[in-house]
Structures are given as C-alpha cells and as structure tokens.
C-alpha cells in the first residue's frame, strides 16, 4: 500500500459509508452541485484517496485541459500532505503519477461511445488498466437511461466503478429525497449520490437520498473547508 | 527619417510549425515593398522548416527572418522581430519576447490551436504581450475559423472576437467581410495587391449582422461612449469601435481575430492595418528593468528620450563587415559617440556606427531613441547584455541562466576546421547563454552542452554550413547529477608528518539535503578551528561538489554544517584544512544515501487519432509517465514526462511510427531520481568507458 501515513484517511468512511467498498464493479456514484461549489475539488480528493488505496484512476474531463487537471491534483495533493516531510511527499506523488491517467475531450467531441472505445484501447494495449473512472463535467441532458445502463454493463465487464460530477441548476425543483429533478430519471442507476449544498459560508456534503433534506439541523457533519476545499469535520 | 514614437510598432509573428509564418512574413515584406518578388516555401517537414527558411535566406541574400526587419505601412514603422519557434531555445525565445510590444499569433484554420501555440502563448502571457490572432490557411480543405476562435477561448483563455467573417472557405475562399466597416473585401491581382470593396453578399448578411453584434458587445466593455451609442441605438462610428477594440487589446483583455490565406494573398493588408490600429506603440506598454544592486527588483522604465539610457542587445549577427549587434532602446537615447556601460561585463563601450536594418539594405543613423530598434557595429558583447548610462545598474534580463541538460563531444576533422570551430563556438556562446562549451584536457575533447538534442543539432548544423567545419560528433550524454537523501555526520582528521613542516586539520560536522545547490554554515565556536581557516574548509567542500565522490557527476542540493574541529599551532595550514574538508565530505557523503538524478523532459506529442496507441506505447517503453491525453476529434495530444536519456533519436522513431504525421515538442521539466535498474546500467557504461580510456592511454 502506498499510504503509510495515518493522516490520509478516507473521509467518506467517517460518514459511515465506505465509499470504496460501496461501489465496486459496475457501480456508479455522482457528485451533484451547482456551478462553482467545488465538484472538481471533491472529485480529485476522492481520486487521490482511491489511488492511495491502490486503485488506478482514469480521470476524464470535458472542460479542462490536461495541464489544468494535473494542476488540480498537485494542488489538492499538496494541501492534503501539508504536514508531511518534503522528500516523502515527492516520492508519494511520483508513485501516484503511475496510478493516474488523464484523458480530456473537447466538449463537442465527447461521447460515451468514444469513451468506451478509448478505455478498451488503453486496456488492450496494456498502457493503463483503470479500476475507477472519474468523469468530470458529465452532461445528463443528452443521455438516455438506456445508454447509461449500457455503460454500466461495460463498466461491469471491465471491472470499473464510475464517478460523475453533475452540475445542477439553482432554480430547478428538488425532490423530497433531495435529488434535483433533472437527475431523477437516472437516480436509480446510482449507488451513491453526494450533494454539495452551499449554505451561508459553508458547503455541506450530504448523502442522498435524504428525506430530512429540508431540515438544516440534520445535515451531515461533513463539509468542505472554504479555504482549502478539503473535506473537513471540524467547524470553521 | 522620423523618430515619432507613436508611429512605431515592434511586433513578433509567432506560429506553430507549418501554420504559414514564413509565407505570411514574405507577403508582408512584399506588400510593404521590402522585397519585390515572392518565392514560395516548399517541402517543409517539422525540423526541416527551420532550416528551410535559413537556406532560403542564404540563397536570396536577404534576411527574412533576421533579428529585426524594418518596414513601413501607412507611414508607420513596423519592426518585425524574429521569434524562434522551437521551445529548445527557451532563452532565445524569452529574450526576443522582451523586445516585442505586441504580436500576431498565426493559427492554422485547419489545425487550430496546437501544442506549440500553447507554449508560445503562455510565454507571451508571462511578458504581458498584447496579441492579435490571424487565422491562416482559410483556403485549405477542412478550414474552420470559428472552431479555431472557440479553441482560442477554451485552450488559451483569450477573450477572442472575430473582426471579420470569411467569404467562402476551402477552395471557395474569396475574401472576407469586415465587421467594422460592414463591407466585403476582395483581393485581386497576382499578389492580391488590389483590394476591392463591395457590398456584403446576400447570403452572408445575417451572419455578418450576428457576428457584428458579438463584436460590439465584446468591445463595449472597453468604451463608455460605445456602450452609450449602442444603448441609445445611435450609429456606431468606425473610429469609436476601433478605439474600443484597441483599448481592450492593450489591456490584454480582448484578442481581435482576423483571417485569410497568406498563400492565396488574402487578408494580409487588413492584418497590417490591424497591427497599426490595435497593437501598442512603445509608449503604450509598461517596461521594466531589474535593479542589479537591489536583488533584481523591477524598476519601471519610461520611453522618454531625456531620461538616462537603458538598452538591450537582443541578438548578434555575423556579417561580412563584422559583428552586428541588434539593440532596442527602452529609455533615453543611444547616440553615436556616447560612452555606455555594459552591466554584465562591467565594461565601458564607445558607440561607433549605428544603423537601421531593412530587409535588403541598411541605413546609417545617428541615434536610437527610446522605443526604437537599431543595430551597432563593432561592439563586443553577448546577446542579452544591457547597456546603460554610466552610473545606472539596471539589467533588462535576469542574470539567471538555466543549467544545460545535455552534452556532446565534438572533434574537428582537420586543422582548418579546428580554428573555424573555435570561432563558431565563441560566437554561439555569446549569442546564447544556454549553449556552453568546455574543453576536457583529460580526453582532449571539446564538449558542447545545451537544452536539448535539437538545440545542439542546430548548432552542429550551423557550424557545418556557416563556418564550413567538418567534425566528428560523439553520442549525446545526459547531464546527470548526484544528491543526498539523508543527514550524516563526519569527523575527519588530516594529518601528515613526513619530514619538513607537518599538516594537521580536523573537521567535525554534518551534511544534509538542501533546496539550493550548495550551502555552507559555520557553527564552530571557541576558535577550535581558527576563523582564518574557515574559508579554506568551505573551499574544500565546494571542490567536492564539482565532481561527486560517488559517480563523479556534479553534486547538488547539499548543505554542509561545520560544528567543531581542532587545529595545531604549527602544522595547521589552509592547505591542511582544505584537504581535511575534502576527506570529511567523502566520509559523510557515502553515508548520506547518495542518489543519481537525471533530467526529465515534458514531452508533448500531437498525433492523428489512429496512431495514439503506438505513440503512447513508445513513450511507455521510454520510461515515460503519461500525464494525460487530450482528444481533439481528429488529432490527439499526448503529454508525458520522459527521462532525457531515453529520448535520443525519438524524432526518427516517431516519424516511422506515424508515417511522419505526428510532431513533438520537448522541454526541460525537472530532475528526478534514476531508478535502481537503470542505475546499474549507467554504472556499467561508466566503468566500460573508463576502461577503454585507460586502455587508449
């Protein structure tokens, strides 16, 4: 295992849910939030924890170039390991690089067909064997339920779990369960849904479905620290 | 000649290989009546293109891509400053960027924003250079200028806005609609020199209106008058709109986009107008120098003739009349007969002949005032030197020069070549501080070092061509480094008692990893080592880092702390303490976990989709870590970090893997530890070469 320091604990475990164990082969997870709340920061953070636990991460982005995605990882990694000794940090980072593969697309040229093709090519040519795919900037609007089901089969066959970030809209209605209505048709396909919910000066991290959503007192105790965008459970 | 600073434009033309920079420059020189016949550029392929333009220059006897070519358009002066395209010449690129006030970013209408455009654009961003974009090759099949504009926004983060829309694309490309005058422009005559202005073709009227709206909206951010006119639905005058665009461009918040096809002679004159209308004159930009006597803090300069002189020598050129030094004056005025001070060398220089370069002739002048570019004869200096009025201590460029990462041994074939080679090397090192030469007395070889394989290749080629040197070049060698990974202590006594005066010195302390190359700290108290011998100790330690005790490579990142020691009233000497420090260093070094570091390059390959698997495989094989892949629809850009040692001859490999359809760029990224398996290989090679050398002797 890469992670030989105890500061890098998977924060989702604290939520009483082992994120990694929860979604295995063919599993889908989603991070839902409005624009600018911190979806990418959270996604990258979770990716780093997974890498530290020995998983190979394929990061897909449709709106950021490779350099920028790499910078996200560096930044988040740097913040996570602030207390670590420099040389150890460097070595850890080097090891992580081998566990990560970034693939970016022009928004207009991205399609699930293409994604499946690219993953198959990567695996077939033995260049990279991902076990978890992080898809940043996924548009639900143009997708059908059936197509996603096919993707799930593909993931299952290839031993992949998939994470998506999904942008929601400020005005859109929210179901009782806390799921934004635009996402409702797909909710059944997902094993884990995390909602980033900005409230005053904090961004709460809560798990859906959650019928208690309307009641702020019952919100989960986890939130993103606004200065670092890291998951935190201590008050600001 | 006039010296009106507002009428000057010092610009660069930057472009990706093969997007038509040479052709565009030719057309500009033709239209500004600098040259009188157009020759086409043919048969370009990657690396060949650079050479191509050099040969072209030679054959034509003019300097198309000379350091600075002066031409006039609409009674304004335009200095076109050459910006070397390849990232291997980082120093050179950065230096010429300092000289520019604005730039034309040439993009291919088919290829769009490619990897090298990104690198060059980032460099320009760093120097705050306002740009206008020219989308070239609208006549080629697959041309899609609006896609390129989107890429400018997405990939380069420009607030790009079209000033024109094309009339027809690909084979049907006829001209363009100017969205400012709302007229159609057509280019007639053999070289498109006759422009006819007509009404906008009907089928484009709607698109033109829509794009003009976009332009107005973008431009209105920079002009209250314009915003008011739009809100009140008053007519918007050309001047008002142009002024707003100019303001936005100078603030680097707007990038006007023009288009055409240089090869088909379309759109070049409007582009020249754009240079005049939207790019800054020297007074519009803020330039600064570094105060050498105050830790290189930036000092703002004023393009004012009465102020004390600050000028930069940015390029040297050998001419039949001697060395020509290209100069840009930033502040004050450089006059014939002045005595100026070279900040780097500390020498005083008297200014003799001053000239201004045209494409095919030069004009003698008496001064170069602030903002202007000229050239000096008979000045001994290196490029990048700053000249100032005696008393000032400002430098235009940082004194920091990155260390070369690759070394090659060269041996001249005969006596004539030997003298020519030393002439050539002398010049190259003056021109380019990242190119270094070094004579190894042990092997009798001359070593040349630089920033990459191509960097050295070009100099080898230039030696052959320009200096007719025939030489044997060895295999390129990577510049390895050694460093330590943990703290370790030393306690070493140097003692000799063999007749005559004895030698005695004892040093105690520790060494540890450090950020900088070498640090030394003296913590000896109570005079156990007399203060007078401390410099000798430091010198002893410093000697060791030149050639590491382990694998004989330079050592970096070491901090030595001297804590204690002892001396002898009679036998201690500087020499004894130097020897003792060397002994101490070696003692501690082997315990400090020494590791070997190798330069790792950032490699960016741009390849057609179908070859991406092959290319990634080839990078993997070379111990590369693939950082990511960017899918652009038809082509794919792969970014990887690969050790330099594995990259030799990669251009050939890449060519054969992709039928010559892929290109790559490479620049230094960082030093990284060499893996154990590779380390053994290097050790073996070193031993072998040592053996063969001793056998030869």
Describe the protein:
The complex is a heterodimer of chains A (236) and B (697). Chain A is an alpha/beta fold and 236 residues long. Chain A has 8 helices and 9 strands. Helix content of chain A is 34%, strand content 21%. Chain A is globular. By secondary structure, chain B is an alpha+beta fold. An 8-stranded antiparallel beta sheet of chain B has the order 18-17-23-14-15-22-19-20. Chain B has a 7-stranded mixed beta sheet with strand order 2-3-1-4-5-11-6, sandwiched between helices. The chains are: A alpha/beta (236), B alpha+beta (697). The interface between A and B is medium-sized, with 26 and 22 residues. Strand 3 (100-105) of chain A pairs parallel with strand 36 (625-631) of chain B.
How would you summarize the topology of this molecule?
The complex is a heterodimer of chains A (236) and B (697).
Chain A: H1 11-14, H2 19-22, E1 28-33, H3 39-52, E2 57-61, H4 66-80, H5 86-98, E3 100-105, H6 112-124, E4 132-138, H7 145-157, E5 161-167, H8 184-187, E6 192-199, E7 202-208, E8 223-224, E9 231-232
Parallel strand pairs in A: 1-5, 1-6, 2-3, 2-4, 4-5
Antiparallel strand pairs in A: 6-7, 7-8, 8-9
Chain B: E1 8-15, H1 21-31, H2 47-60, E2 68-73, E3 76-81, H3 90-99, E4 102-108, H4 115-126, E5 131-136, H5 145-156, E6 160-162, E7 164-167, E8 175-178, E9 183-188, E10 194-198, H6 205-220, H7 224-231, H8 238-250, E11 255-259, H9 268-278, E12 287-291, E13 297-301, E14 310-319, E15 322-331, E16 333-335, E17 339-342, E18 348-350, E19 354-357, E20 362-365, E21 367-369, E22 373-377, E23 386-388, E24 394-395, E25 406-412, H10 415-431, E26 436-440, E27 445-450, H11 453-467, E28 471-473, E29 477-478, E30 481-483, E31 488-496, E32 503-513, E33 518-522, H12 534-546, E34 558-566, H13 574-591, E35 595-608, H14 612-621, E36 625-631, E37 635-643, H15 650-658, E38 663-673, H16 676-696
């Amino acid at each position: 295992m890469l992670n030989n320091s105890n500061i890098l604990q998977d924060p989702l475990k604290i939520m009483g849910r082992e994120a990694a164990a929860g979604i295995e082969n063919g599993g889908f997870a989603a991070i839902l939030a409005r624009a600018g709340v911190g979806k990418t920061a959270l996604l990258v953070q979770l990716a780093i924890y997974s890498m530290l636990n020995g998983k190979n991460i394929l990061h897909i982005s449709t709106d950021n170039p490779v350099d920028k995605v790499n910078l996200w990882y560096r930044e988040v990694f740097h913040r996570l390991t602030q207390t670590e000794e420099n040389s150890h940090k460097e070595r850890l980072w080097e090891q992580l690089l081998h566990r990560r593969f970034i693939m970016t697309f022009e928004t207009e040229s991205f399609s699930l067909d293409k994604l499946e093709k690219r993953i198959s090519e990567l695996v077939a040519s033995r260049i990279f064997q991902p076990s978890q795919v992080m898809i940043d900037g996924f548009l639900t609007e143009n997708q059908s339920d059936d197509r996603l089901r096919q993707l799930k089969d593909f993931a299952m066959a290839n031993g992949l779990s998939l994470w998506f970030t999904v942008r929601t809209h400020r005005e859109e209605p929210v179901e009782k369960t806390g799921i934004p209505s635009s996402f409702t048709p797909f909710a059944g396909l997902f094993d884990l849904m995390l909602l980033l919910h900005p409230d005053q000066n904090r961004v709460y991290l809560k798990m859906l479905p959650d019928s208690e959503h309307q009641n702020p007192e019952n919100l989960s105790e986890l939130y993103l620290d606004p200065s670092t965008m890291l998951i935190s459970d201590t008050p600001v | 000649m006039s010296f009106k600073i507002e009428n000057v434009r010092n610009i660069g033309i930057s472009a990706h290989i093969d997007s038509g920079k040479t052709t565009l420059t030719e057309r500009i020189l033709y239209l500004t009546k600098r040259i009188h016949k157009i020759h086409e550029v043919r048969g370009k392929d990657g690396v060949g293109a650079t050479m191509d333009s050099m040969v072209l220059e030679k054959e034509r006897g003019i300097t198309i891509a000379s350091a600075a070519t002066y031409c006039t358009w609409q009674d304004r002066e335009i200095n076109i400053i050459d910006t070397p395209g390849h990232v291997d010449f980082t120093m050179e690129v950065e230096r010429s960027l300092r000289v520019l006030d604005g730039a034309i970013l040439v993009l291919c209408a088919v290829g769009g924003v490619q990897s090298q455009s990104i690198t060059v654009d980032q460099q320009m961003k760093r120097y705050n250079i306002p740009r206008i974009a020219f989308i070239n090759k609208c006549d080629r099949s697959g041309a899609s200028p609006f896609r390129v504009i989107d890429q400018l926004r997405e990939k380069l983060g420009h607030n790009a806005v079209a000033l024109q829309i094309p009339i027809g694309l690909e084979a049907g490309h006829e001209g363009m609609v100017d969205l400012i005058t709302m007229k159609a422009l057509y280019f007639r005559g053999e070289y498109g020199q006759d422009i006819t202005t007509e009404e906008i073709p009907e089928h484009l009227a709607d698109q033109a209106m829509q794009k003009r709206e976009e332009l107005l909206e973008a431009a209105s951010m920079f002009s209250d008058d314009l915003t008011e006119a739009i809100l009140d639905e008053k007519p918007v005058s050309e001047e008002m709109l142009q002024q707003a665009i100019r303001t936005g461009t100078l603030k680097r918040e707007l990038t006007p986009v023009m288009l055409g096809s240089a090869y088909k002679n379309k759109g070049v004159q409007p582009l020249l107008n754009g240079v005049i209308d939207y790019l800054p004159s020297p007074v519009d930009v803020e330039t600064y120098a570094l105060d050498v006597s105050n830790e290189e803090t930036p000092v703002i300069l004023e393009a004012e003739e009465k102020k004390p002189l600050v000028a930069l020598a940015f390029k040297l050129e050998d001419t039949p009349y001697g060395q020509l030094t290209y100069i840009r004056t930033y502040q004050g005025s450089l006059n014939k007969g002045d005595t100026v001070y070279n900040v780097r060398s500390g020498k005083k220089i008297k200014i003799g002949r001053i000239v201004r370069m045209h494409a095919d002739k030069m004009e003698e002048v008496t001064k170069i005032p602030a903002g202007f570019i000229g050239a000096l004869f008979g000045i001994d200096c290196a490029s990048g030197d700053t000249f100032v009025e005696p008393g000032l201590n400002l430098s235009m460029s940082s004194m920091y020069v990155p260390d070369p990462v690759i070394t090659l041994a060269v041996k001249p074939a005969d006596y004539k070549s030997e003298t020519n080679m030393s002439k050539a090397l002398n010049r190259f090192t003056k021109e380019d501080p990242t190119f270094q030469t070094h004579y190894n007395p042990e092997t009798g070889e001359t070593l040349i070092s630089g920033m990459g394989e191509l960097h050295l290749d070009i100099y080898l080629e230039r030696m052959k061509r320009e200096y007719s040197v025939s030489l044997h070049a060895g295999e390129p060698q990577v510049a390895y480094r050694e460093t330590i990974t943990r703290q370790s202590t030393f306690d070493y006594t140097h003692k000799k008692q063999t007749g005559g005066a004895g030698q005695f010195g004892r040093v105690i302390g520790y060494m540890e990893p450090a950020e900088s190359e070498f640090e030394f700290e003296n913590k000896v108290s109570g005079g156990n080592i007399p203060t007078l011998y401390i410099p000798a100790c430091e010198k002893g330690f410093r000697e060791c880092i030149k050639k590491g005790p382990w694998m004989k490579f330079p050592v970096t990142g070491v901090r030595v702390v001297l804590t204690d020691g002892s001396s002898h009233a009679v036998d201690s000497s500087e020499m004894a303490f130097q020897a003792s420090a060397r002994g101490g260093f070696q003692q501690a070094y082997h315990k400090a976990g020494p590791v070997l570091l190798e330069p790792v390059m950032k490699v960016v390959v741009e390849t057609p989709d179908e070859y991406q698997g092959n290319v990634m495989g080839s990078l993997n094989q070379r111990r590369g870590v693939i950082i990511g892949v960017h899918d652009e629809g038809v082509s794919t850009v792969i970014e990887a970090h690969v050790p330099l040692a594995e990259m030799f001859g990669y251009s050939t490999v890449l060519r054969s893997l992709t039928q010559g359809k892929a290109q790559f760029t490479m620049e230094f990224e960082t030093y990284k530890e060499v893996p154990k398996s590779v380390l053994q290989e290097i050790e073996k090679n070193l031993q072998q070469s040592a053996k063969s050398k001793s056998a030869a002797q």
